[in-house]
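Hi there, hope your week has been kind to you so far. For a while now I've been wondering how a particular protein folds. I'm sending you its amino acid sequence along with the C-alpha cells. Could you read through the record and tell me how the C-alpha cells relate to the sequence? Take your time with it, there's no hurry, and the full record follows here.
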Amino acid sequence: MKSGSPLKIIQVGAVPPPFGGVSVHTKRLMARLISDGLSCEIIDISGVAKSGPNVRSLSWRRAFLHLLRCEPSIVHFHNFVPRNLYLYSLLSTRHLTVLSLHNERFDDDLRRYSPIERPILVRLFDSVAAVIIHSETSRARALKVGIAGQKLHIIPPFIPPAKTDLVGLGLPAAIEELRKKHRYLLATN
C-alpha cells in the first residue's frame, strides 16, 4: 500500500432508506468522516437504489469486483455474513479491512456452519485488520468462538445525530403527520 497520503475510507453496507440501526450508523459515520476532512464513500448493497454524494449503489457481487479494482483503501464492512469472510480475506490482500459486528448473533451465525468449516471461518478473521464490536458481552462471545483478542476493538455504536439529519430525507407523509400530532415520538435507529 502507498504511504504518504491518507487512504480513502470505503464503507460497505447500507444508508437510509430503508431506515435501520446499521444504515443510520453508516450515514452518521460518513458525515463524521467528511466533517473531519477524510476521503470516503459508501457502497450501498441494500438492494434499494440510491444516489447522492459519496454513495454508490451496487450489488454485493459488483461491490466485491469494484473493490478488487480500486486503489488500496481502508474498507469497512458493515455486512457480516460468515461466508463473506472468504471475500474479506481476499480483499485484505489489497486493502486494509475492518469488520463491524453490529449485533451479538455473530457467534450463532458461525455455529450454523459445519464443524469442518467453522474453524476455517474463524481463522479468516485473522486476515481482517480490525473487528469492531460494541460491548464487553460481544467481546466475550468473540473470544469464545476463537477470534483473536488483539483484533477486537470495543466502540459503542452511537454517533450523535447531526442537526441536519432529518433535512431532505423525504420522510413518508404518515410519519410527518404522526410527528405533528404527538409531543413525543420514541424510536430506535
Q: What stands out?
A: Strands lie at 9-13, 40-44, 55-57, 74-77, 96-100, 130-133, 152-154. The longest strand covers residues 9-13. The longest helix spans residues 21-35.
